[in-house]
Amino acid sequence: ETGVTQSPTHLIKTRGQQVTLRCSSQSGHNTVSWYQQALGQGPQFIFQYYREEENGRGNFPPRFSGLQFPNYSSELNVNALELDDSALYLCASSSGRTQAENTEAFFGQGTRLTVV
Amino acid sequence: AQSVTQLGSHVSVSEGALVLLRCNYSSSVPPYLFWYVQYPNQGLQLLLKYTSAATLVKGINGFEAEFKKSETSFHLTKPSAHMSDAAEYFCAVGGSNYKLTFGKGTLLTVNP
Asked: Quick one: CA dihedral B23, B25, B29, B35, positive or negative?
């Protein structure tokens, strides 16, 4: 049990639709990161938020966007869904801002998104 | 830029045998290195991490990894495999923030 919960666990959407995935972190975890894990691949970094501001982004188009709220919850929004967006989406949270603070990032169980 | 190469997408061992999962990394800055385990339909669980302290890092469930700068390697080992070790293992490299670059993973099968 990591204290990081994601909802929903599974989701099926149609190409072109929009989707919102949610993550609830532990109290005090100011950093949240989102990853996309395609089938048979390692997770790929989408972006990271610290205290409600984006402070890092991977190689994903602007139709991937996020929000972080003061209550330690966050969202990943994906517009204009494509078939290749089908993947497991993971969020990870930590109490620190940087690795140097030697705080662990805890992963949620993920949301399995299928785009048809 | 940072990258990770995991040698062997699938490793099969007998119960009680040595487990060796290979990871090589590339990083332009002193890296933070991690091994994660993922069980089916689960998120990622941290096994161990290297943060420039001791080069031999001990983790949970009897796993350990050795950081070798000259070889840019961070291989994961366990002296004696258990059936419950069967899972997918990911090596990752991180920089100063929490962005992690993962390898493609190694599926470990443990045979009775």
From this structure: negative
